[in-house]
Each structure stands twice: as structure tokens, then as C-alpha cells.
Description:
Chains A, B: Residues 514-552 form the ATP-grasp domain. Chains A, B: This is CoA-binding domain protein. Two copies of one chain form a homodimer. Chain A has 716 residues and is an alpha/beta fold. Chain A is 38% helix and 19% strand.
Amino acid sequence: MKNNPLYKLMNPGSIAIAGAGNNPRKMGTLHALNILKGGYGGKFFPLHPTEETVLGHKAYRTVDQLPQVPELVMLIVPTDAALHLLDEFGRLGTRRAIVVTSGFRETGAAGQKKEEELQEIARRHNIRFLGPNCIGMMNSQISLNTTVMPLSGQPGRLGMASQSGTYVTQTFSYLKERGIHFSKAISVGNETDIDITDALEYLGQDEETKAIALYIEGIKDGARFIDVAQKITPHKPVIAQYVGGSAAGARAGMSHTGSMAGPDFLYEGIFKQAGIIRVDTVEDLYLNGWMLASQPPMRGSRVGVVTNSGGPGTAISDTCDKNNLEVPRFSPQLQEQIRQLIQAQASSTNPVDLTFDLNARNLSVVIPELIMQSGEVDGLVLHGAMSHGFLRAIHPYLQEMLGGISLEGFLAQFPVDFTDMVSLPVKYQLPMAVSSFFGNEDNYTAAFRSHSIPVFDAPEKAAKAMSALHRHKEIRERKEIERTPLPALAVEAEKIIAEAVAAGRQVLDEYQAKQVLAAYGIPVTRERLAHCAQEAAEAAQKLGFPVVLKASSPDIAHKTEQGLVHLNLKTVDDVKQAYSAVIAAAGSQVPVLVAEMVQGQRELLAGMSRFPGFGPCIMFGIGGIFTEAIKDVTFRAAPLTETEAEEMLTDIRTAALLQQFRGMPAAETAELARLLRKLGELALLHPRIAEIDINPIVLSGSRPVAVDALIVLTKE
Amino acid sequence: MKNNPLYKLMNPGSIAIAGAGNNPRKMGTLHALNILKGGYGGKFFPLHPTEETVLGHKAYRTVDQLPQVPELVMLIVPTDAALHLLDEFGRLGTRRAIVVTSGFRETGAAGQKKEEELQEIARRHNIRFLGPNCIGMMNSQISLNTTVMPLSGQPGRLGMASQSGTYVTQTFSYLKERGIHFSKAISVGNETDIDITDALEYLGQDEETKAIALYIEGIKDGARFIDVAQKITPHKPVIAQYVGGSAAGARAGMSHTGSMAGPDFLYEGIFKQAGIIRVDTVEDLYLNGWMLASQPPMRGSRVGVVTNSGGPGTAISDTCDKNNLEVPRFSPQLQEQIRQLIQAQASSTNPVDLTFDLNARNLSVVIPELIMQSGEVDGLVLHGAMSHGFLRAIHPYLQEMLGGISLEGFLAQFPVDFTDMVSLPVKYQLPMAVSSFFGNEDNYTAAFRSHSIPVFDAPEKAAKAMSALHRHKEIRERKEIERTPLPALAVEAEKIIAEAVAAGRQVLDEYQAKQVLAAYGIPVTRERLAHCAQEAAEAAQKLGFPVVLKASSPDIAHKTEQGLVHLNLKTVDDVKQAYSAVIAAAGSQVPVLVAEMVQGQRELLAGMSRFPGFGPCIMFGIGGIFTEAIKDVTFRAAPLTETEAEEMLTDIRTAALLQQFRGMPAAETAELARLLRKLGELALLHPRIAEIDINPIVLSGSRPVAVDALIVLTKE
């Protein structure tokens, strides 16, 4: 834990701040105010060029006047001043910094250079820092808030790390209203030193943090990110939003933190590989993050639904169904118990619908408790418990009738004891999500929220949050991720690559590509190169009929359309004729490949591309001529463990194709998984390989065989 | 307009109510209170068995004591009393009713019978009514609210019709807070008389209603629903949520209004056919509905984004991208104008990111106006304009520094004139969506909302709402829907069906099925039936080689696996051998079909099934042996117009397959569309046909040919 640079940074005994003054319209002053007024118990040293005091605290003109070495310094000064001051604090002995100052990489080349200087200064003094261009951090356990937005409230359970400062400061009021409390929140800014993976690691180790939310626009070191996440996610839920996959999104990300975005499909795969639950909106990030942080884990997929209205009950059930949760019909015994408590027209089956009723005790406690006790559910969604919200609205209409009663007096006529209700999740160790159209003006909503039971403002959201817990159940139950060392480099593969490089070729043709693949045990078609019709015929006889003839051309995509492929040749004559036809179609004396004819209707593909930050990534999906139309592929970063490769096989929409299917046997998934792993290893062992495309991989019976392949080399 | 039964019901000059008293805990009293206190100007006649007055109004013991014939009666009494009273009001001459009373179809068989009685009574007296088991309605234009939840506020623009009462009453506070105002809202309950389609028609005609939101759990008369919607949707946006597709969802819907749910995929297609924008959550229904009702239409797909923070800017851009909206890079000229107004590190490209700044005028007015003036966008999304929200939070920290200033005094130091800001959408006739993490405690949020500019509590939601407007642009620009009369019944088809019925067969075999299809001009393989090897050989010679032989078996799915299909037979000998093989595999002397061999790699499917409420529905999608694995199909209700059939062709994920594709020509889409239309007509002309399955339809070059087909007949 203490190896993580954030441990000290998040728990400083003293803080110096440069850039704070007495003008409350200045950012620096706001940062200082939040530290001073938020309840932080450590020492505070403002630096100021002219003022005697800052916010009532003695100010220091220069670093060397400071009475002690501050454990943390915050810089909210112009860019050049930040460089200078970091150096001075480094000399003094300060070893942690938060650089709020902007004007670095995000502004272009000159800023990039300043950012390198900043990094150099920090390295020289062994300073670990957050930022630059960040908004600070907060640690609720020591009431320390270094951001610009005030935050009061109890110590929380949700850890947050964000590549946008907004999400750890502008949302504080939003979160407070919804009863969501951070344990720690960290704005990482440009990540020049401490990055979001450090923050993830820190939050993973932090005992107060029960779940982690990440806002991500780009990952610098993908391998470490995955590794750190995989150690955390089986025990502690991690939920993340990734944005930046679109052109404008990438432009926006680039301009505000200089982060490099990758394609959306890549992050989709990486998050699955890392065991991270992905969400699409910041609302889901916070709300589902809070559900994960506040509720007991889900042990199965069965949800009990209790409502005061059919519409929300139907919507909750439908949303559960679409998110892999069951809403099982209750047992006759349980239904009988429930029927005692509801009106004749109400429904006891699950969802339980009490219909509109101003007495919410059955709705909010008695029936939920019966259901939790029954052992028939793994979680409960409740909609419609309310009182004051409605009473406040109706009071003006009733006031006259009730002798001019005051609102307070009126509300007091409807006392509620919430003790039993709010203790349900802990008592039964079952998660609970509440939906209400009333906010905190209703005493039910307020009671749930103040006892860390999430309340959502729409029924579908409560169901969706429950599904996040269920998703973490699947992640907890994931097969173990066991990393194995890379195998030895295959000399014959390296030789083929070196020859191509020496010859100035940037592409390996099909024959060479398959030899490289075969060198790592990837099953490829048996085949030979032929340079005349006679050689082709001999090759065919040796391989055994039927065979395929094709020009050994690097253009994988359009061989068939150009008449460069002849399938299912059954005789020597067929082969000779086909040979002539290929040469004629090619228009020149190309080498011709004679290959065994692999029969199989199921065509898959595998590929490798390199992405900034992630290195070689492996693609798997549906291949054949309809690849682009079907677009059913999934990605992971290499190297792949067995578990990760297996998960890829079930992560395509048409995964059913790999099962027993219309008389075809189930695919040898272990063999397919091995192929994907080998592809990753190969890419790691041969950095000259830029890209691999194996399409199709035909399932010959159950056995995958690479039927066509292409390898592209790097430019230098 | 006045033909619609709701016109009179929603605009009554006088209302009688049975079931209201002076006990404010009773539902009936709440309904009455809302009528009386909501500002309704018409007459009010409470019926009560004992009280002299109800809520200060003279009460009547019996119907015949009423001083005049009420234009509308509301019944909130026990089930049997409702039947009795409706009859009495009918005799008196009342012609409109709202039956809130429950205990009808939703409770089972006995209730169903009472519901029929209710209907019979209404018919007898020519009464048109809402309900039973509904919550009432509201008409903001005459300040009439007959539901249980108080509602105050300005007359609105969004019309709502709902099969759940909750969504027109329990959400009133929710809606008010978000600045969403209904023009009219209608709870349709069990829809015994007036149904949701009547409500849709009424709202379509209502001039105060600028957009319509529907909450749907099941449609009774699909054809009429589609017809009514298609007349409205090119002019006025209709947005709908359908739930009930899951088993538990259907159970819930059944139990609360007795409505019959259909599968989710069916409603997905029906909504597209009707021109209705579908949403998945009630939040999207309200919020996007309000966006559609309150904002000018979108004329293109270009969105300008202005934020005070990179995270939301990135998220908005990404959400736009995922929802078919562009976030174009601004022209150099526009960027230059913007750069004058922003700090050096801020970005002017689009999204414009001003970074955190307490002066929101540039953010909220000046830059948005520049962008709107430029002609470079079709809509604008703004995030981060705020003042009081932040100031309220920071005030306690600053109070001491500022000489103990009060909150009001402090806020008053930051005056804002919102006039320019809130007039932007109308001034430039461009839609605007705002995102803010502050609610109405912030004066910006409050100002936008009070001027009908939607404010969302997350950036992604604002972008998504903009995409709803864009979706309506597509619907406005849809090709015209021109209904044509059904063609004449094909006598030869009816003959084949009649023969099968007479013979007690429930399935037409492939040969018969294709003959039925061919009778309507659907292109099928040329083929003949053979009963011996010699006949098969002769048939092959007449058709021309190569041919296919297959057992003419009704089991479409597994012929191939059972060895009952032999492809690509090129000689008489091949045909004879194949004949013997088929007979051997079949194990009996089955008829054998000899058909032309249709070559083509692209396999589609079309089908027809009947669904309750919708009659014959047409399916189109990807066929062949991977149909079930790929699951790429779309549905519409028959009869199909040309436009509707064409839209099906582009409504599958893999629609690219129908384009020019890897050397294959584009499919003859007109021919495919005609096939789908014919299928629908056929089903309407032959009600004995229960199901049709044409799979595969092979694209032979560009021409679709039905290669296998099956027709199932109804049981009686």
C-alpha cells in the first residue's frame, strides 16, 4: 500500500499552497477555502507574494521562509511559476505535489516541452505528483477536499478516479443530493507522473473504498492497467465509463488533457478482460458505482419486485429481463403470505403490485421482509414508497379543510419509523435498490439515502443498478487468470521475417504468413507452392484430392473475386486447368499455392493489431466473405491467458455457432483459445509484425484450420 | 376532431363525481380535491349517500336529484356500484365517463364479466368512457386535473397517454421540477371503450400538443394504431416506451390492466412502421418527449457543443456520434471568433471547452449565439452554465470573510440577465439542450426550465435528447406511405389450401407452399415433383442442369442434415443416384422435388406469423443455415406499403449485404420489397394460413429467389 505514491499524497500532515489569495473569485482561493473549511486537521501554509495572511492564515513570501517542510504542495499558479516552484519545493524536501496549473501538453508543442521539464524537475527531487491540469483530490476519511467545490457529508465508500476534473468537483452537489459519498476522489489531469492506473491501484488497496468508479478518456500503459485491475476486480467491483471513441470525442479529450483515445471497440474488450463493468453515462457511473459500493453482493440472479403501481413493476421486470436478471414467480406459500397483506385486485406473483395506497408500511417493510426471508430472491427492487412528497403537494388543497393546519403540523400527523426498513439489506445480506419519483423532499427517499440505500428517479434505473451487482457476481466467479511466461522465439519464423525485411518487403504472402503461424503451432492448411502446372499437379497428388489452387497474393480480401482462387479440384486435369486460369487471371507468373481443401461451413477470423498504449491486441470473430457485413468481433490485449482467450469465444453475438449446430459438432474451443493465445505471443516475440489477419479460419468438423492469412510488417 | 370521444371528455362544462367525500385519506376525495383546487372553472356535482356537502359543495344523494345533466361523470366507487351508477347517469343523459373503479378484467374471469356489463351499459346509453381501472386525466388548457396528485403550473405542450396511471399522476412533482408541462394527459386503464389509439388520435389533433408521449404495455387494434400514428408522425413527433416483452413484464401488465403484451421485437418493428420514436425508459419518455415538444425541429445532423469542461464535452461528442449526430469541426472563421472569447488553453474546435470559469455569460450566451448565427450547426448542446448552485455551496465558507453576508445578499452580488440566453432557440429556430449538475437551486437551470429549454442532469442525456429530434427529422422526411387495395385472391392458391384442409393436413409441403407463393408472383425456384428416378431425370433435363434434389418434406429445418438434399447435380446419372439416396435416407417412398440449382452466397429469409392485436406480421432478415445464430430479423404488420417494405430492407444490422458487396451486385430491392408486400397480402387474403417461412431466399446475382418454403395452416 505505502508503495503507491498516492498513499502519502492523499494523507498529508501538512499542505502548502501557491496561488491562493484573498480574492474569492480566484480558483486558487477556492481550492484553499475547501481545504480550510472542509474539516481538514493538518497544517496549512499559503504562499503569497504580497499578502500578510491568506484566508486568515499567515502567508509566506518564499519557500525558504516556510516553518517546516510541507508534506504536500498544491500549485495553482501560471505555468512557468509552477515549474519554478516545484523545483524550490523539491529542494526544500517536499515529495508530493498536486499541480492544478494548466498550459502544458493540452496546449500543444510548447506546452508539451514544459510538461517534460515539469517531469524532469519532479524526477530530480523524487517528487510524485498529480496533474498538471487537474482539479485536485478529496479524502473523506480525513475530511480533506482540495478541489474547488465545497463538499460536506459523511465519509464515503465509493472511490473515484477521473481523467476529467469535473467529475470530482462539479458534481459534488449532485452526488450529495443523491446520497452518494466518495471515500476518495482523484483528478489525474495530464497524468505526467501519477496516472489513473496508480489511482486504481491505490483505491483497490484502500479499505474504506468498497467499489471504484473510473472516468477514462485514454489509457497510457494498457498492460499495467489490465494487470492492476485484474488483481482488484475479483474482490472489489470496478465500474468505468470510457468516452473518446468518436472523432469529436477524441478531439475533445486531446484538447483538455492531451490524452490519446483509442477506438471504442478496443476499450469494450479491455474492460471485459480487466473485469471492469462498463457503463455509457456518467449517471450510471455514479449511481451504479454507489449501488456496488453500498449494497451487499448479489449471490444469484433472482430479483423480487415490489411496487405500488403496475407500470413501474412492468418496467422493472422488463429491464431485469433485458439485463440477465430473473423475476421469478413466487412460490404459492410466499404468495399466500403476501396476499394477506394486499387488496383483492393487487398482484402477489412477482412483481408484487400493491396498487396506490397512502400507507406505505406493507410496501416498504413488511412485504420486502417476507420476500427477503423466503430465500426466493437474490436482491430486491422497490418502487413507490413515499409520504411527505405527496403530502407536501396536497397540503395546500387540504389546509382549509383541516382548520388551517401548517405544513409541519400536517406532516407530523403521518409519523414513520424507518428503523426496520433501512436495516433490511444488512439484516438479510441482500442488495436493495429503490425507485421513487420523489426526491429528498420525501421522507422515504431521504431515509433510504441517508442509510446508504440507493434511490433512483426511475424504475428502470433501479433494475439496471441491480444488474451491475449481478455483473460483479459473474466477475467474482470468473476463472482464474494465470499468466505464463512467453514461449521461446521460433527461429524459423524470425528467419522468414528477416528475409522479408532484408528484401524490403512489407507484407508476407499467404504461404510465408502461414509458415510463421505454423511455427507457433497454429493449425494451417497443408500446402505447397507451385511454379508450373506440373509442380501444381504433383503437389496436389502429394496432398491428396480435393485441393484448392490460389495465387499466393498478399491481397487477402479480393482473391476470390479476381478469379485467383479455384476450389474443390478433384483431378490432376482440374489442377492443371486451374493453374493456367490463375496465371491468366493474375496476368503474370505469380507463385501458386496448392492447398488441401478444408471443408466446413463455419468461418471465423482472428487477427492482431497494435494500438497505442496497449501494444498487440487480438481480434476474434466471424470470418469469411461476410466479415464486414456481419461485424461480429471482439478484442483483447496480448498476452492472453487461457481464461481470457476462452472468454473471447463467448463474447461474440453469434457465439452459438461454436456450439453443436445443425448437425455440426461443437468447435474445439480449447484449440481455438490456444490459437488466439499463440497469436498474441507471436506478436510479442516479433515486434516487426505490425498486423496479422487470419480469415477465414474454417471449422473443419470441430477443428479450426487457418485457411488464409496475411502478415504485415512494420515500416522500419 | 370532435368525432374523437375524448374531445368532449377532456373539455367538460360540468363534472359529477361519485366516491368523493370529506375524508382526505380516500382516493375519491383526492380526485375531487384536485378538480376543485386545480383551477377548473366548470360546475362540480358530488354524489354522496350521507353527507350534505362534500369539500364545501352541495352533495346529492341520488342521480335524479342533480340540478342538471353533468357532461362528465367520474366513478370512484366499488365495482358493482359503478355498474349501477353508470346506468343511472346514462339514463339521465350523461355521455362521457371516467371509471376509476377497479375490480374488472385485471382480477380474472368474474371481473371480465363485469367489464363486459360495463361496456354493455355504456353502449346502451351511447356513453364513451375512460377506464375502468384508470387514474383519470388532466387538461392543462382548462386547468382540469382529475387525478390524485396535485398539479400546478403553466399550460404545457407535451401530450401524454398511458396504460399505467402512475405516469399521469405519481410523476407530477417529478415533471414539475424538471420544467416539463403536459398539455393533456390521459390514463386509459383497461381501455374497455376509449383506448390508447383514441388518445393518440386526440392528441394528434390537439393544437396545444406539440409532441406526444405514449406508455404502452400492449396494443389491441394494431392496424388502427399504425394507421392513426402514421397520419400524425410526419407532422408531430410521437415517442413511446413499450414494456411487457418479458415473461414477468407480461405477467405484471396482465395483472394491472389485463393488457396483452407482445414480444419486444414485434413492437420494435411496429413503432418504426408507425413513425414512432422508441425509448427504453420512462425518463427518456418524459425528457426526450419534452425536448420534442419544446424545441424547434432539427433540420440537419450537425451539433455544436459548448462546455466549461472537457469531460462532459467528450461525453456529449461521443454520445452524438453513437446516435447518428455529427459534431463537426468549426470553420476557421468561426473558431477565430470563438478564440477571442476564451482562454489560451481552451478549445475552439467543437466541442468548445471554456474550462472552469465563474463568469458564464460567454459560455451561456455569447458563444452559443456565435455558433447559432454561423449556420454551421443544426442544434446546440450546452453544459456547465451555473451560478447560484455553486455560490450557495461556497457561501458558508466565504460568509465570515465577506463580513457575515447573508446568502441572499451574496447571491445578489451576482446578478444575471437571462433574456438573451433563453431566447436563443426561438430567435435562431435551432434546438438547444442543456446539461447541468445543478438542479433548480441554480438560477441558470431554473431560467432555462422556466423558458421551456430542457435541462438534463447529465451530458449524455442532453446529447441523446438532441438525437430524438434528429430521429424525428428522419421520420418527417420518410417516403410517403401510400396504401393500396388488396389484390384479387388467387384461385389456384386457395385451391391448394382447400385441398390440404379437406385432407386434414396442417402443413403445405415445399412444393405446394411454393405454388401458393408463385400464385402471387413471388419468385420461386423452377421445379417439378418426381415419383421415380426416371421422372427425376426427365425433370432435370427439362429444367436444365445443374439441379437440386430434395425430399418434399415439410421439415424445413433439418432436411440437409438428414441427407434429404442433394445439390449441384450435373448429369442424368447424378440425378438418378441422388434420387435413390434421398429415398434411402427418407426410409420411404416420399415425393422428390427436382429444382433448378440457384447459385448465390447471400441467403435471406422472409416469414409471416400472426400476433394477437396485429394479425399477420411480416419478418425479413438473414437466412440460411446460420439464421438462428445470427438472429438478424425485423418485423412489420401487414399489409405493407412500398415504403414500409423498403424500410425493412435497411432495418437489419447486416443491411450492407444487400448492397454491392465483394463483386456481387446490389440486390434488386424493389423485387425484395415486392416479395414482402405479397407475403402480407397473401396472409390477409388467406386467413387459413397461420404461418409462412421462406428460408432461404437466395440472391441469384441480384435477383431474390425463394429456394425453400413452408406454409402452416390454422388448426380449424
